[in-house]
Request: fold
Amino acid sequence: GGGWKDAILPLIISLDDDCRKYAALAIANLSTATASHEKLLEEDVLRHLAPILQSEEVQEVVIYVLNALGNFSTSSIMWPQLQELGAVKHVVSFVDQSDREEILINALFCLSNM
Reply:
């Protein structure tokens, strides 16, 4: 989890599209390790990822964030904060509005775990 605050967080909030894309990919990969979920929850990872779904963003960033949220949703410890952040509503909006297959697949994956 320590790599999140030091290495990934500064990049996910960067103004550079490529930085955000690679940071989102990194957190998507990190989210596959359920052992890291508790530490990442303590470090407020969801509070930084959820707003990405509410903004105009590079599609690859959205894909990776949806994938990460889908992985995080497999841990019940994440559910209260996901609910508090209104994650389901924002993920559903991608199902309703996106024509890109990768976004739809990751949004449905995410919803299936919520």
Observations:
- Helices lie at 2-12, 17-30, 37-42, 45-49, 59-72, 79-84, 87-97, 101-113.
